[in-house]
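Q: My labmate handed me this sequence with no annotations at all. I'd like to see what the chain might look like in three dimensions before we decide whether it's worth expressing. Could you predict it?
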Amino acid sequence: MRVRLEPSGLGFEAEAGTTLLKSAESAGIEMPSSCRNGTCRTCICQLLSGSIRHTVEWPGLSAEEKAEGWILPCVAEAQSDLAIEAPKAFSVF
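A: Here is what I predict for the chain of 93 residues:
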């Protein structure tokens, strides 16, 4: 599945069964991260389009944040093509 990061326009392929953060890193894209288990919220991003599945039952997001489209890429997997607001993402290449 294809993931597009805004506003940079960077993109990568999300591998099935792999978190968005790991897929981005495999493609040479760095996104802010710290704990990698869904609690610290360092990687929080806004989902603009598409659908994801969090790999933990209740990631560090409130019900309101989830309803507003906030996601934690360190514990999220793509379920479709995605567009994500990730202003601090950058290419390491």
